[in-house]
Give the backbone structure.
Amino acid sequence: MRPDKFYSILLRLYPAAFRDEYEREMRLAFKRRYRETDGLVKRAFLWLAILPDTFTTAAREHFDMLMHDIRYSLRTLRKSPTFTAAVVLTLALGIGATTAIFSLIHTVLLRPLPYIQSDRVVRVFETNASLNIPRFSASALNFLSWQEQSRSFEGLAAISGVAGNLTGDGEPQRVIADAVSTNFWTMTGIRLVAGRTFTAEEGKSGNDRVAIMSEGLWRQRYGGDSGIIGRTILLNSEPRIVIGIAPQDMGHTARTDLWLPYVINPAQENRGNHVITVVGRLREGVTLAQADAELNTVAERLEQEFPQSNKGWRVRLLTVKDWIVDADSRTSLYVLMAAVGLLLAAACANIAALLVTRATGRSHEFGVRLALGAGSGRLIRQLTTESLVLASIGGGFGVLIGAGAIRWLATKVPNQLPRSTNLNLDWPVLVFALVLTTTVGILFGLAPSWSARKADIQTTLRESGRSSTGAGAMLRLMLVGGQVTIATVLVVAALLLIQSFERLQKVEVGFEPDHLLTVVMNLPAAKYDTPDKGQNFFNTLLSDIRALPGVVSAGVTSSIPMGGRGYTGMSIVPIQRPADVPEQGIQAFWRWVNSEYLRTIKVPLKLGRLFDASDLQQQAIILSESLVRRLWPDGSNPLDRQVRLANGVIYTVIGVVGDIRLQALTEEPIGTMYFQPPGGWRALSVVIRTTVPPENLTPGLRDVVKRIDPHQPLFDVRTMDRIMESNAERPRVQTTLLTAFATLALLLGAVGIAGVVAYTVERRTRDLAVRLALGATRAQAMSNAARGAWIASITGLVLGLLGAWGLNRWLTSMLFEVRPDDPFTFTAVAAALMAVSFAACWLPARRAARIDPAIALKHD
Amino acid sequence: MPSRHSDFEPESLLPLPQAAFHILVALAQGDRHGYAIMQDVAAGTDGNLKLNPGTLYTTIRRLLEQGLVIELDERPDPEEDDERRRYYRLTAIGREVAKAEAARIQQTLAFARQAGLVQKRG
């Protein structure tokens, strides 16, 4: 290549405007300099001087121009503060909302799990089609058999929850402990913060007095003292040596305080007892489906070997990712992201419309600058810089709004969404906000640039931006239509969620949740080693509580309704089995209750009687209505009949009560059986009915417990109202967010419509005046001014309704007793948006009616 | 732009970048086109400072913007008849700034001389 040719190419590094001015001169200078340099070495040195010089000066030139453009932009933006404020506010809301929702998506879905090659880590569920159980925990003996017989896994590990009280050093504290197989750590690849993991030896009975502490507990209770390793702690009154510190976020949970070795004693296990969580790592090259198939053949073998306990039991594998973040959470996040994306699009459309208007208004300025010799490329560069400056200011405020929204979300979601305990504005979220801001800035910078590109000196100077026809006006109408479409989709979604939420609030839970205080008591086995000790504790506790002022009654149960834990199901079968009840019986929830419990929560008695103290020895059982219907489909009287539970014990039915929603507000009750604790009175929830506000009772309760056992921590003291509220928290947050997005989108849409009409009136004053002078009525003038925007809004509305109809099936899993295509909702939204569009057209169009032709035409 | 202010102080632009000062010095001797400035600067510094086209023209653009030089109409290059070149002239303000910079350098030099860092000419 010829040297001057190459130099010409190099010159392209400079900004076009600079090149226009100096390219010829520079090439000439280079040519002469080159000609005067002779010899290969000297010329090489010349290049060595010229290349870096070109790079640095070109970069500097670009930088100078950018700075110049930024200063110019800031100056022009300052001159139109209303416009600037409108754009910045709109953008800040759009970017803030998007950033906040993205932080959720990032924390829950995108953030990698702490496992090595997490796509090979799977959760093994047991499943039983004949009992209608799609996913269930595993039994410890089945787990051992899988470990022995399966070939698909590098390792299988079990996790078993243990409730515990930490005592000895300081205040007694209730902790969540998880016993895990000793290979759990190597299998998942989770690295400890400090110390070591369990040895295989520590998985054997007698050697297991060790514990790994979570980082959170370590910092909170022991102030992060590294001397904790090697120290002995008292868990449930048993000493354990701390050998390591585990990260708080373990992928599948961030709540566990202590990790213990899981010791399985096969002699004491029941193969039919499904209580443990099993995870495994697939061997290299083994697919999920292959492992699933292989483990199912093992399950079939076990069924033949142990027909009593394993009839119908198979396995189902799920990648940990799908296990940890369930499909409902995923959908809910995608819906929020889609909604906020739409809101952002509406915000951008609004801003683009504002910018187009402004560009049209500034066409005179552009014309002058073109006439003075600025290239249209230079103008586009200036406009893009201006958009980016606007976007950066908006984005800056957006990040602030986003940070606030994230803090709000962080108080709302951790109990509702998996993996969301450490929600904050971290750097991937900031990078996202930055990329978003830049993209948005460039994108909406395109709109006015498009008009500027077409600006030619003659027409722009002559008309000085008086016409309203052409690309700009059409573009604005399309943007308005788009905004209405988006607003419609979001308003439909929000209205559906609001109705769903209202129905959720009105759900009959089956008992009277007001004026109830609940508390979980968990007595350590080492101290309360006989059933009598536990029973004495609870008896004293209950009678002391009843003596407190403001207490009506108090009872205990194995777990309270909607308490978030205690999925305890068991099969039940009548001794004289009717034909349509399967041999294996019917799955139903079971609850241990004492004689006072059902009276305390006020479950309606339908038949027979509630427990009294004498029933404890008599194996009496109370069933809920729906369970009775399933057990005796012929409608025969269940009282005094005998039933056998899966644990082999036979009970006599003494009463029938109403159904209670035990797990969630949205759940259809499947039936519950109540019987008295057969002996193990250690982990029970106390429920107290009060006449005073229940939270006022907490200090008294604390004193009572302290008096009976000073080492016993109080755990989870909550009013039933609060529990119900937290159950509705997720739909509440979803509804709040979507309603906010929809309101904003609707507001933007209305402003967009009004803006385009006002703008039309302003630009076409002369034209309208002529029409008025020629005899058009005021109404005709108004309709003339508003027609375009009205047609655009109605088109947008129709598209929006169609879009909502198509998209809203994604809402199905978020809706309770409301259909996503609910005709009432669609009609209401159509009517409301028509009204809003009409108002947004009519208000500014009135100005068209007020035009005085004489003045408007004379003025020209 | 500083040149438009009546109360303009040349010192506000000091110290000048090396290339800018040399260009002003070259133009102080008369109107020049770009290449001639390069040659003058090279000659005036015993070949120690060879301005590259990039530095030369970006600096000229800045000097124009600051009003220290102005551009004249294009004239044919006396050495190459067929090429028309752009000529630049020092403005009054440009001269003031160049003087101020020269004085500043002299002061620095005097200080260095006191310390015995500069050889006295023989």
